[in-house]
From TrEMBL, chain B:
It comes from Kiloniella spongiae. CDD domains: TM_PBP2. The keyword Transport applies. This is Glutathione ABC transporter permease. GO terms for molecular function: dipeptide transmembrane transporter activity. Pfam families: BPD_transp_1, BPD_transp_1_N. Its main location: membrane.
From TrEMBL, chain D:
Its main location: periplasm. GO terms for biological process: peptide transport. Pfam families: SBP_bac_5. Residues 1-27 form the signal peptide. This is 4-phytase. Belongs to the bacterial solute-binding protein 5 family. Residues 72-427 form the Solute-binding protein family domain. The lineage of its organism: Bacteria, Pseudomonadati, Pseudomonadota, Alphaproteobacteria, Rhodospirillales.
């Protein structure tokens, strides 16, 4: 595939900056970053923050509207929606982050090997990568979950596989670019072993864009997890995840909309925050062009 | 030159297709469960079950089953659906038009609107427009499709009653699904267009175009757009697979038949021939998409044309 | 023909260029010389009216071309000058042409736009100009793409574009930097000939003092966004007033003698955001005194040249 | 109609047009959304298809019909006689019945039809019929290879709607897809797989069964059946007038539907049970005391009241209430009894320790609870999980798709599961508890000598229906005594319709909402 995919990949990973938007952007970036930190802290300290047990049912008080003591209301089992949204942050964030971490490590290995060794190996890897990249991610995830069974583990792997192509491609592009740089050529000419070059010279230099793109992909991962949840896969009850909550019976949308609307809003806000913050990172690290190079 | 390029590029697809068919076959047959459970009903005996397994050749070793499938495939025979009891080719050809209509319209919608919005956002001087576009693009690429679909129905179909809630009859049933899929697509295309335009604008030759005294509009239309279209074409070509199979959630919510829904339903029933057929179709569409993308690139960019022939 | 006075350029809050003045008549060749980042290219862009492309604007001074004030000129009127009366040659021929278009149309466009020619007239003219630039088989070249040509050839195409509408002033922004040494000389010679043949005014921007010495009539030496010395080439080479000019001249290898000491300039060019107070050159200057760190030197005319140094005119 | 509603928003001239549209709408034209469990049919061939929907019953008539009380009523057969030894059945057929293609329905039609079942997945329905003899034009005799007290039940099934032989043979594979010929009150006009089926009135129809009030042609001229996979979308279609009838409304929607002024809901007694099978081979459930305790932990009444809003009935044994075999010794019924459950667990050695979970030999009482995706079961499973926690049993839920969960059962990886069945015949006991079908469908993995003996007697040695009832009841009671499952809930079948537009008989006859009721529906708007 051609280098234009680079622009595509870059475009997909963040919105370009503009001179005027710059000041406004960094202000937004601060808010987005602050929100994300808060979210992660909430997820970590969920047991101490939640007002109720996320799994405690109270069938006599089901579908209660937001109010006191259930600030965001209760679901059809009388469980506290706020507590579930907070615990849901745990599930959704950890599933997505773990998935992307796996995706990055495998993708970087594949991409680095492909970019470094080139030839038939590169062509084979990239053909597969391009194909999976063009395959709808929801189908990849659905087939994968059908194969190894539902649950958080398989959802995690499904998301990891769905986004593998992106990181393989990005790493490869970084490596190909770096390989042309003089200091690497020098190292190669000095007779260093491929493993050494990859490990000490190429990968450290390639990692920043990959990490940032990975961060942005966490947002996509959250959405994919939610969509899997819509098909009843993903987190197993009573474990809350945003996706599972949003899909907990579309009947809820009419009966007790807060059960579905609040997780939806949290997903939207989180993903937007992830994107804004990612943009700031790209700007701060000045790696826009390197992401473009993919 | 271009023809030569297409020829060689197509040759590469043959080994890829064969490997893909093996992968698809293995994935489908490694799925736990089997289609026979979906055929037998209360009252049939365990012997009836065995008879069915034999009838559909599911007791044969995997490679025998693969050989049968692939050799039939070479004669254009997609096989017979086990649970759905129809020729797979029939099922696909019944569902494909729906996918193509929905996908094609969503594709056209997102390309045209996306390119226009992307161009506006890259060229506007107004900070408000810029921030608005930024917000739109951000939202468009983050909202889950099923969520958007439900909201669309609630607002446009239930509140305003402008369009039917679901179904696939008449043009008006297409509007909401196309908008739902298109929303994300528009955001993506606008994003790519915008970034590509901003990238090209920084190239040296653009300075020289200005130095020639060309107007901004001439430069945009004659020089910047063709460049910006290279990545846009790439992403659009890559989306062909998404068009055919990626609309599952939208098909589900809007009650439209389609390849994605057929595939997911067959997957649930382990209707092997249907799943295989659909996946192969999608894979072919994806390969065709990358081929079209590459060819379009080559047609547009003389550098690629030479590099690859 | 062209007169620049106290030009000042700003990008948002930063002002990377100020206090640049020079004048140029028909048939004259002016060199603007300095290290990268000294503001040479900004000067060129200011003259071409292309600063807004990179987000900059002119905040002070004037540029008068043929009696017309350019700094306040409307964009539409400026567009009629660009390509028609002001020609630009850019630094990197590799990236100066639209890679998706054939050579012919790219050159034709100028004549079509400014000389109201139709396509075939413009093509005839293109072929003719390419021929005068010593490009072999000009008619065939028109049907080729930029990537199919060598760097030197591409730079000739760029020159052809600049010349297509018979301009009065040619601004050449480091036209040879990206080229092989042998080609460099050819291009410089070509420019030199063109000035003679067509009675052009040439602004040649370069970091190479020797090119200036060979080619130009006048020279502006720039450092850290300011002109620091200006005058006829002979005067400046004979008696450079600014220590920086002196240093640049010292950098030119004089011959092939093996024991010759080639001096460099110690230190680095400051970036826009941290221009030193006073004379921007003082941290690298071996003659710097207290006054140099606090007061910016004014332009002092000394003989035929003028220099911005507190010690201009002093004997060394 | 949606378009009528839409025009209301438009101005005066459009209102006149709307008037015309309303007249057109008065032309007895309705659209019906299938329930989610009957989606995805690819053919209206009743003989070979494994998945038929409600529209099938409108195209084809059956020889006999079954009512909600499980009694049998004549339809195309006016009467029947079973020989004393059960080895033959003779049916008198209705006179004057014609197929949609104009050919007459007679004894030969039946004789041509039964052999078509050979080698299909539906062959078991006629497996006991050795041959079909045409006695005269309107008399046909089934010669049996063994007594089959269940024959009438089979004949009343959708799969035994009678197709016209001529068309069946000429269309071949395409029968039921491009065309379909039966004797039913409606003819197939068009069938778009996965989208909709359009039926038009059979104007010759004059042979409805006595389950219908209307004995002539249907009131409706045109019925459009639509497939809408998402339940909430289907609900919105009903609300906005896109469909007039919703077959199969999930219980969670009832509350919302009742709030809609223009929507009426019919609740029919269901034909199935939601229950929790217990894998008797997986410890700790190999101990009958633990199994019994599990059953005592489930509060059926609370479940019906809370998650089903009082709709439907609690289930206390394995069969639907209307079957005579369900009337077992009350002592054997499974009821809520948490105290006894705790005692039983104590006796089994599972003691309450410090935490909320019982322990035995340092092992916590943690079990796997499987279920299928789809809101119906996942909600129920979560409540069951909470109720099990009350007696100190920690259940971990896994939600599978229907194919994967069967694979788990077959590989004996399960302990508890929440599932349901839909079947209005006591032979369901054989299906789920026969030692021949361990894993799936026998999810309880129960293989017991006495159980199998009682099963064989009920399945094979029943000469007539009274004997069959007694045998199955005995088998049912024995199954209950072994605590192989926990009965939970008998759902109702809920049908919602737009009461502004259509009138539907208040009392629905038959085992489900089918042709016998649809011929009585009128457009009233």
């Amino acid at each position: 595939m051609t280098s234009n995919i680079g622009t595509v990949a870059r475009a997909m990973t963040g919105f370009g900056n503009s001179a005027i938007g710059s000041a406004f952007g960094s202000w937004l970036g601060k808010i987005a970053g602050g929100f994300l930190v808060l979210l992660v802290l909430t997820a970590i300290f969920a047991p101490w923050i939640t007002p109720f047990d996320y799994a405690a049912q109270n069938l006599m008080n089901s579908n209660a509207a937001p109010g006191w003591p259930h600030l965001l209301g209760t679901d059809q089992f009388g469980r506290d929606v706020l507590s579930r949204v907070i615990y849901g942050a745990r599930t959704s964030l950890s599933v997505s982050a773990t998935a992307i971490a796996i995706s990055i490590s495998v993708g970087m290995t594949l991409g680095a090997a492909a970019g470094y060794f080139g030839g038939f190996f590169e062509r084979a890897v990239m053909t597969v990568v391009d194909l999976t990249w063009s395959f709808p991610d929801i189908l990849i995830a659905l087939i994968f979950v059908a194969t190894i069974g539902p649950g958080l583990t398989s959802t995690t792997f499904a998301i990891a596989i769905a986004y593998l192509a992106q990181f393989t491609r990005l790493t490869r592009a970084q490596i190909v670019r770096l390989k042309r740089e003089t200091f690497i050529e020098a190292t190669i000419n000095l007779g260093a072993k491929p493993r050494h070059i990859l490990q000490y010279h190429l990968l450290p230099n390639a990692i920043a864009p990959v990490i940032v793109v990975g961060m942005l992909a966490i947002g996509d991962g959250i959405v994919l997890e939610a969509t899997l949840g819509f098909f009843g896969l993903g987190a197993q009850p009573p474990t809350p995840s945003w996706g599972a909550m949003m899909s907990s019976g579309t009947a809820q949308l009419f009966l007790s909309p807060w059960v579905i609307i609040f997780p939806g809003v949290v997903v939207a806000v989180t993903v937007v925050a992830v994107n804004l913050f990612g943009d700031e990172l790209i700007r701060a690290l000045n790696i826009r062009d390197r992401i473009r190079g993919a | 030159m271009l023809l030569r390029y297409i020829f060689y590029r197509s040759l590469m697809l043959i080994p890829v297709s064969i490997s893909i068919s093996v992968v698809i076959f293995l994935i489908v047959h490694l799925l736990p469960g089997d289609p026979i459970d979906n055929l037998i009903r209360v009252g049939s005996s365990p012997d009836d079950r065995l008879a069915l397994i034999t009838k559909y050749g599911l007791d044969q070793p995997l490679f025998v089953q693969y050989y049968r499938w692939i050799s039939a495939m070479f004669q254009g025979d997609f096989g017979e659906a086990i649970v759905l009891r129809r020729p797979v080719a029939d099922l696909i050809s019944q569902n494909l038009p729906y996918s193509l209509t929905l996908g094609g319209l969503a594709f056209a919608f997102s390309s045209i609107v996306g390119i226009i919005l992307g161009t506006i956002s890259a060229t506007t001087r107004s900070a408000i427009v810029k921030q608005f576009m930024r917000g739109f693009i951000l939202l468009g690429s983050t909202v889950p499709g099923f969520w958007l679909a439900l909201l669309m129905i609630l607002f446009f179909a239930v509140q305003l009653q402008w369009f039917p809630v679901s179904g696939a009859k008449g043009w008006d049933s297409l509007v909401l699904p196309v908008l739902t899929i298109g929303f994300g697509g528009v955001a993506l295309v606008a994003r790519v267009t915008r970034v590509a335009l901003l990238d090209v604008r920084r190239e040296d030759f653009v300075t020289l175009l200005h130095a020639k005294g060309l107007s901004m509009r001439t430069i945009l239309v004659r020089h910047l757009m063709p460049h910006a279209m290279l990545p846009v074409v790439t992403i659009l070509a890559l989306r062909i697979g998404w068009i055919l199979g990626g609309a599952v959630t939208v098909e589900f919510v809007f009650g439209r038949p389609g390849l994605g829904l057929l595939l997911i339903r067959a997957l649930g029933q382990r209707d092997y021939p249907v799943v295989q057929g659909c996946l192969l179709m999608l894979a072919l569409a994806v390969m065709l998409g990358t081929l079209i993308g590459d060819v379009a690139q080559a047609a547009m960019d003389p550098r690629i044309r030479e590099e690859k022939t | 023909m062209l007169e620049v006075r106290d030009l000042e350029v700003a990008f948002g809050p930063v002002a990377p260029l100020s206090g640049v003045s020079f004048s140029l008549a028909k048939g004259e060749k002016l060199g603007i010389v300095g290290e990268s980042g000294s503001g040479k290219s900004l000067t060129a862009m200011s003259v071409m009216g292309l600063l807004p492309l990179s987000g900059g604007r002119i905040t002070g001074g004037s540029i008068v071309f043929d009696g017309q004030e350019l700094t306040t000129l409307a964009e539409s009127a400026y567009r009629k000058l660009r390509g028609r009366r002001l020609g630009l040659i850019t630094q990197n021929p590799m990236t100066s042409l639209d890679p998706l278009q054939k050579i012919g149309p790219q050159v034709d466009a100028v004549a079509v736009l400014h000389l109201s020619m139709n396509a075939s007239e413009a093509r005839t003219r293109t072929v003719e100009i390419l021929g005068t630039l010593r490009i072999p088989e000009p008619a065939l070249i028109c049907d080729r793409y930029p990537h199919q040509m060598s760097g030197g050839m591409k730079q000739r195409i760029v020159i052809a574009m600049a010349l297509a509408a018979d301009p009065d002033v040619l601004v050449a922004d480091e036209p040879t930097t990206a080229l092989d040494v042998t080609v460099q000389a050819q291009i410089i010679r070509l420019l030199d000939d063109l000035v003679k043949e067509r009675d052009l005014a040439l602004v040649l921007i370069t970091h190479d003092m020797s090119v200036v010495a060979q080619t130009c009539d006048k020279v502006v030496v720039m450092y850290a966004g300011r002109a620091i010395e200006y005058g006829p080439v002979e005067a400046i080479f004979d008696a450079p007033q600014h220590p920086y000019t002196q240093a640049l001249i010292n950098c030119i290898p004089k011959g092939l003698s093996t024991d010759e000491h080639l001096s460099g300039i110690s230190g680095t060019v400051p970036t826009v955001s941290n221009y030193p107070k006073g004379c921007a050159f003082h941290p690298r200057c071996d003659r710097a005194k207290n006054i140099c760190t606090s007061e910016r030197p004014a332009f002092i005319t000394y003989g035929n040249n003028a220099a911005a140094c507190h010690f201009a005119g002093d004997d060394r | 109609m949606r378009y009528v509603t839409k025009t209301k928003f438009l101005s005066g001239t459009a209102l006149i047009a709307a008037g015309f549209l309303s007249c057109a709408a008065m032309a007895q034209d309705v659209s019906i959304a299938f329930s989610s469990d009957e989606l995805g049919a690819t053919s209206y061939n009743p003989v070979t298809s494994s998945n038929l929907n409600s529209a099938t019953g409108l195209i084809y008539d059956r020889l006999v019909e079954q009512d909600a009380d499980q009694s049998y009523h004549p339809h195309l057969a006016t009467s029947w006689v079973e020989s004393a030894d059960g080895m033959s059945w003779t049916f008198q057929l209705k006179d004057g019945v014609t197929f949609h293609d104009g050919t007459a329905f007679n004894a030969q039609s039946v004789a041509d039809w039964i052999p078509d079942f050979a080698d299909t997945e539906n062959a078991y329905l006629v497996a006991a019929i050795a041959s079909v003899e045409v006695i005269d034009d309107l008399t046909v005799k089934f010669v049996m290879s063994r007594p089959e007290p269940n024959l009438l039940y089979n004949l009343a099934s959708s799969f035994m709607g009678i197709p016209g032989s001529a068309s069946y043979d000429s269309l071949g594979e395409d029968f039921g897809v491009t065309g379909a010929v039966g004797t039913g009150p409606f003819k197939l006009e068009s069938f778009s797989i996965g989208l909709e089926t359009v039926l038009v009135r059979n104007d010759d129809y004059a042979w409805a069964s006595d389950l219908s009030e209307n004995q002539g042609t249907a009131h409706l001229e045109r019925v459009t059946f639509r497939e809408i996979p998402d339940q909430s979308t289907a609900f919105l279609e009903l609300k906005t007038g896109g469909v007039d009838l919703l077959l199969g409304v999930p219980t969670d929607f009832l509350q919302i539907l009742k709030a809609e002024s223009n929507v009426s809901v019919i609740q029919m007694p269901g034909t199935g049970i939601h229950y929790m099978p217990i894998n008797v081979t997986a410890p700790p459930f190999d101990n009958i005391k633990v199994r019994e305790a599990t059953g005592l932990a489930v509060n059926q009444e609370a479940i019906v009241a809370s998650i089903y809003n009082g709709v439907g009935a609690p289930a206390h044994n394995f069969l639907i209430g209307s079957l005579p075999e369900a009337q077992v010794d009350p002592a054997l019924n499974v009821n809520y009894g948490p105290d006894k459950a705790k005692t039983l667990l104590d006796e089994a050695g599972w003691m309450m320790g410090e935490g909320k979970v019982r322990m035995k030999d340092g092992v916590p009482l943690t079990v796997k609870l499987f279920t299928q995706n789809g809101t119906e079961f996942t909600s129920l499973t979560q409540v069951v999980q909470a109720q099990l926690a009350e007696i100190g049993m920690e259940a971990e839920i896994t939600v599978f798709d229907s194919s994967t969960i069967r694979d788990e059962y077959k590989n004996n990886r399960h302990q508890l599961a929440v599932r349901g069945y839909d079947w209005n015949n006591s032979d369901i006991l054989d299906w789920f508890f026969s030692g021949k079908r361990l894993g799936y469908p026998n999810v309880s993995m129960w293989n017991d000598v006495e159980g199998q003996r009682l099963n064989d007697v009920a399945m094979e040695d029943s000469k007539n229906s009274d004997e069959r009832i007694a045998n199955f009841k005995a088998y049912h009671e024995y199954v209950l005594s072994q605590h192989l499952f926990v009965p939970i809930y008998q759902p109702t079948k809920n049908i919602a319709y737009n009461s502004d537009r259509v009138s539907v008989p208040k009392i629905v006859r038959g085992t489900r909402f089918r042709s016998q009721t649809i011929v009585d529906i009128k457009v009233t708007e």
